[in-house]
Design a protein that fits this description.
By secondary structure, the chain is of the alpha/beta class. It has nine helices and twelve strands. The radius of gyration is 24 Å and the shape is elongated.
């Protein structure tokens, strides 16, 4: 089987549009159509349903697409290993995560030791997580949710406490700790309900008979503390995101039992682990040991 034609099929199947795939592959649409037709002739089977300009995978195409995805994931893994040998430790690092405060600090310190690496942060979406778990497309994943899957290993890094954060002008700012039942009706600022951290805090509150009233819901975690600082409301803040030196806000410990989450790494078991990715894992252990003793 011609690997070039298989690549043409794979890219076309991903977008299910000949003209878009041709642009992505930097070839003409007639050349792409001809290559796929030749592949179908070679395999003695159709791979797409064709309806004018619309194409969709048939059962043959779906079968081939799944296997082509694994083939190109293996090729990507091979390229990753060869690139490391060629670049002698400079390398590249791609990490799936949505922890802006924590990850910025970890990465900043890591770049002190490896200033020449090329780094890419990948959003923790459903599709990206699937690409990581199933095909090892990225090096590592930093998350607060343990996943049980035969392809990945969970490495817990740090169990962090979650605090109530209020503007320094609020009465709660005078307290060192508070029980949720003692809170007045505070306007809350937080992530939208689709986010895991919001679900975690909502569940904890509900279990303790308290329902936060969210006045502001945002998509960016970095916005939350800025709004609290400006006196717009209260928020729940994980320990690693706290700024202890900002006199405009106060972090208050919550007395309702253990209110925590665990930050951890997901490492793929079957893809090539580069020296840079191994060094980053060790750096994460060292970072939490040194900064959160």
């Amino acid at each position: 089987m011609d690997l070039v034609k298989l690549r043409y099929f794979y890219e076309t199947a991903k977008v299910q549009n000949m003209s878009h795939a041709a642009k992505e592959l930097l070839i003409s649409q007639p050349a792409l159509s001809k290559a796929i037709a030749q592949l179908e002739e070679e395999l003695e089977m159709d791979l797409f349903y064709r309806n004018g300009k619309r194409i969709t995978l048939n059962s043959n195409g779906e079968f081939l697409f799944k296997r082509a995805e694994r083939i190109f994931a293996e090729i990507l893994d091979l390229e990753r290993g060869l690139r490391e040998f060629r670049e002698q430790g400079n390398g590249e690092l791609s990490i799936v995560t949505t922890l802006p405060y924590t990850f910025t600090n970890i990465l900043n310190e890591f770049l002190n030791f490896y200033p020449t690496i090329k780094y890419k942060q990948v959003p923790l979406s459903k599709d990206n997580l699937e690409q990581f778990i199933e095909y090892g497309k990225f090096d590592l994943c930093i998350t607060t949710e343990k996943l049980n899957h035969p392809n990945v290993e969970w490495l817990p890094l740090f169990n962090e406490e979650i605090f109530l954060t209020v503007p320094s002008t609020y009465p709660e700012a005078k307290l060192e700790s508070v029980h949720l039942s003692e809170l007045r009706s505070l306007p809350f600022i937080g992530l939208t309900a689709e986010y895991r951290f919001r679900q975690l805090t909502d569940n904890f509150c509900q279990e303790n008979g308290y329902t936060p009233e969210y006045q502001v819901e945002v998509e960016e975690a970095t916005t939350i503390l800025q709004l609290v600082k400006n006196g717009r409301g209260a928020a729940f803040t994980p320990e690693t995101s706290m700024n202890m030196y900002d006199d405009k806000i106060k972090h208050v410990r919550i007395e309702n039992g253990e209110f925590t989450r665990t930050i951890g790494l997901l490492k793929h078991k079957y893809t090539y682990a580069t020296a840079i990715s191994k060094a980053f894992i060790q750096h994460c252990y060292d970072y939490f040991e040194n900064t959160h003793k």
